[in-house]
Each structure stands twice: as C-alpha cells, then as structure tokens.
Amino acid sequence: MTGILTARPLPARSRAFDLLLAGALCVTAGFLSLAQAHFGGILAFGMLVPLIWRRTHPELVFFAVCSVAALQWLIGVDLQPGNIGLLVALYAISVYGDTRLSRIALGIGGLGVLMAVSRYWSNSDWKQQVTMMVALGALVFGVWAFGERRRTRGLYVNQLEERAAQLERDRDRESKLAVSNERTRIAREIHDVVAHGLSIMIVQADGGLYAADQSPEAAKKALATIGDTGRASLTEMRKMLGLLKQDEQNELDPNQPRPQPGVSSLPELIDNVREAGLNVTYDVTGEPRDLPALLGLTAYRIVQEGLTNTLKHAGPGARTSVSLDFGREMLTVVVTDDGRGAGVAPSSDPGHGLVGMRQRASVSGGTVSAGPKAGGGYEVIAKLPYNLPSGE
After folding, report:
1. What is the CA radius of gyration of the chain?
2. Could you tell me whether strands 378-385 and 367-372 are parallel, antiparallel, or unpaired per DSSP bridges?
3. How many CB atoms lie within 10 A of CB 371?
C-alpha cells in the first residue's frame, strides 16, 4: 500500500498526453453518455475526468472510477460509453501501479463482470448470459494482461539501461584505475632512472675532483658529462612531474631497486617469449645509438606489452615480428602478428595495456597507434623521438 498517495514523477509531455486523452474521452464518451442516460450520464464524467492522473496516481484513479461505476450499478443506470474509463483505469494500474494492487484490481474487474451480467442481462437466457460473461471477462483480462506485459517490458528495458550505465561506470573506473596504477609504476621507474643519472654524476664528480690537479682535461670532460647527465635527468623528471597530477608521495617498492631494461634487453625478452611458444622474429634497421634511459625503457615496455597481447589474443600458431628502426629523429617500434586478434571487437575491451603504452609514449613525447591490420592480425606502432620537447 505504500506509495499510493505519492505522485510518480512524470515528464511534461506525458502529462499533456494524459490531459488530452481525458479531455477527448470526456468530449466523446462523456457527451454520448449524457445523450443516452441524461442525468445518469453525469456519472460518466466521474469515470473519465480522473484519468488525467492515471499515471501519477494509478491506484487512486482506479478505485475512484470503480466507486463511480458501483454507484451507477446501485442506482440502476444502464451501461454507457463512459464506462470505457474502467478499462483505461485498469490498464493504468496494471502498467504504473503497485503489483499487488494490480492483481487486486483484476479481481475487482472480474467481480464487475459478474455484477454487470447479473444486472444488465438478467432477463436473457443462460446462453446469452454465459456469452456476455465470457466476452466481458476476456476483455477485462486482456486489458490487464496487456498492461502487465507493458510493465514487464518496461522493467526489463530499465534493467538493461541500468546495467549498461553500471558497466560504463565500471569501465570508466577501471580505466582511471589503470591510468593511476600506470602512473604509480612510471613514478617508481623514473626514480631508478634519476638515481642512475645521479650515480653517474657522483662518480664523475669524484673522478674530476681527483684529476683536477694532475689532468685538467680529464676534469673538464668529467664536468661536461655531469652537465649533460644532469640536464637529461632533469628534463625526464620535469616531464614526469608535469604528467602526474597527484602528489608524489607514493611509497617505493621495499625491494632493492634494480637497473631498468632497455633496447639492449629486447633479445633476452624475445628469447623468453619464444620459450613460451610464440614464433617471433626480431629485426633492427638503421644505425643503433645510445638512448636515454627513459626512452629505452619505454621502447622495451611497449614491445613487452605487444608480445603479451599477442600471447593472449593471437591464438596458437601465430607468427609475430618485432622491428626497431633507428631513424634520424626518432625510433620506430613495430610489433605485429598474423593471428586472430583482429577479430576481437575493439570496444569489447578498452585494453589497459594500450592505455599504458600510450601513457609511456606520451611521457617521451611519442605516440602509439594500435589496431587490426587490413590483411588480418594486429599491429602496434610506436614513434619515439630521441629528444624530449624543450622548454620544460
């Protein structure tokens, strides 16, 4: 019984439709009832006007219309066009009303059929009485069943919409969590990169101090190395701090920091992947050069993530190739396979690995593109400039 007196929220367009419907029924069925039953036809408006609130207060409307119909039966007014309000009210409570009260309304509708047959067809033979009872009963039950079906379908659609909204919220939350975790991991890695640069600077400073008196040229060379290393480390650190939007107060891994992998570690990575059963070819074009620690780490992680995705999605027997092209201004990393990964809908999984690859590439001023190949398979292309953007 709770909620009967509480109005349901209703859009303005729906309120206007209900007002128009009730008005049209009053003009047609209401005045036809007046012409048919004269003074008794006034009761028709009592069954039609409440339909204005059929969606906001369906239970009250139904019981109000039934009360007017019961009064019509008691005073002996014949059936009239205004009685259509009973069916509209029954439909409204079955769609918009409380489920338990909707079933009670069906029972009341069945009782109304018996009352109508006993009053208006009392002088007919039993065959006509049975025919009218079945016909009216089928009409009442049909209207109620149609409304219940409409209610069930509406609930199902609402559940689907809510589920889709929840899935979208979960996806956004997981994506943000993936980015947050990736940033935390990159912050830990940049710690090792900067620590490596500072270690070089300390060693060069100690050596330069020792050689200052005996070999001024060696001391100058050490100072130049310190300057280059310091500028490179500072640029990398500023780039990272500009990317991270949260306070850098995360606790570091308690384990002893280890040197981060780079391009030189790729052969070992590829050998490990081959041992896992993936057919991988490795090709290097151009003239290899020494890369900044962060750039080498980015290239390594992109290849690692690309091979991991191939192992997960390409399927058995897939062939994979990894190529590095040392161009004049940038390093191009390509990881491609001929497996079935292209058959997976990109929207079905946002891909946390792809988020990580793009995040890493953006830190180094590069870009990553990934997607199915035209001839089948999947391809990841990363373009990583050798020099970070200036002006940081």
Report:
1. 39
2. antiparallel
3. 12
DSSP 3-state of 215: coil
Indicate the domain borders of the chain: 12-165, 178-243, 263-385
pTM here? 0.44
Task: With H, G, I as helix, E, B as strand and everything else as coil, classify residue 16.
Answer: helix
What is the dihedral sign for C-alpha 295, 173, 370, 278? Answer: positive
CATH of the domain spanning 263-385, picked from 3.30.565.10, 1.10.357.10, 3.30.470.20, 3.90.226.10: 3.30.565.10
Mean pLDDT per 10-residue segment, the chain (392 residues):
53 81 84 76 86 88 90 84 88 88 89 84 81 89 89 85 85 78 66 58 71 75 75 68 50 45 87 76 91 86 83 76 93 88 42 69 86 85 79 42
**Among 35, 32, 7, 36, residue whose Cα is nearest residue 48:** 32
Length of the chain: 392
Strand partners, 330: 385
- What is the rounded CA–CA span in Å between residue 241 and residue 228? 20
Residue 133 DSSP one-character state: H
- Tokens 């929840």, residue? 166
Q: Distance (Å, rounded) from C-alpha 66 to C-alpha 106? A: 12
Distance between CA atoms of 247 and 379, rounded to whole angstroms? 35
Q: For the structural domain made of 178-243, what CATH number should be given?
A: 1.20.5
Quote the Cα angle for 338-344-347, to 5°: 135
